[in-house]
Automatic annotation (TrEMBL):
The keyword Transmembrane appears for this protein: no
Organism this protein belongs to: Nocardia africana
Name this protein carries in UniProt: Long-chain-fatty-acid--CoA ligase
UniProt lineage: Bacteria, Bacillati, Actinomycetota, Actinomycetes, Mycobacteriales
EC numbers on record: 6.2.1.3
GO molecular function: long-chain fatty acid-CoA ligase activity
Domain of life, source organism: Bacteria
Keyword presence, Membrane: no
Family assignment from sequence similarity: Belongs to the ATP-dependent AMP-binding enzyme family.
Length: 158
């Protein structure tokens, strides 16, 4: 991976597990033939060579041939006045393959519209990253570990 490029984080070395106990199928999905452990994380190397984890590979979607990392969009939307929380997923689109859909929880008393969200995103993000759909919710679904259940949001689309 070159500096400034996003990519999957892989690990290899004596400190990496040899595999899952009694589960060769899970081991084969996680550790490749050369011994690289596929973490499922996406990261970027900064100019000093430090790795920053930016997203999960399973959350990435492809829009018009470009890889889109929802965490970047969510961080941008968090700076929009009136947004308490957000989650972004890729949804099917005939022309682009997938496009973004943002689920937004408004701050109490905020008067925020779909047009406001999209206009803000257009000012701050590359066009292929701008969510094409916005849905407002009272709350987002969370796991017991406190992570947004994007799988559940995707299932609602299906």
């Amino acid at each position: 991976m070159r500096i400034g490029d996003h990519g999957e984080v892989l690990l290899r070395g004596p400190n990496v597990m040899a595999g899952y106990l009694d589960d060769p199928e899970a081991t084969a999905k996680t550790i490749d033939a050369e011994g690289w452990l596929h973490t499922g994380d996406v990261g970027i190397l900064d100019e000093r060579g430090y790795l920053k984890i930016t997203d999960r590979l399973k959350d990435m979607y492809i829009s018009g041939g470009f890889n889109v990392y929802p965490a970047e969009i969510e961080q941008t939307l968090a700076r929009l006045d009136g947004v308490a929380e957000s989650a972004v997923i890729g949804v099917p689109d005939e022309r682009m393959g997938e496009v973004g859909k943002a689920y937004i929880v408004r701050r109490a008393g905020a008067d925020l519209s779909e047009d406001d969200v999209i206009a803000y995103a257009k000012k701050t993000l590359a066009n292929f990253k701008v969510p094409r759909f916005v849905e407002f919710r009272d709350r987002l679904p969370y796991s017991a570990a406190g992570k947004v259940l994007k799988r559940q949001l995707r299932e609602e689309i299906s």
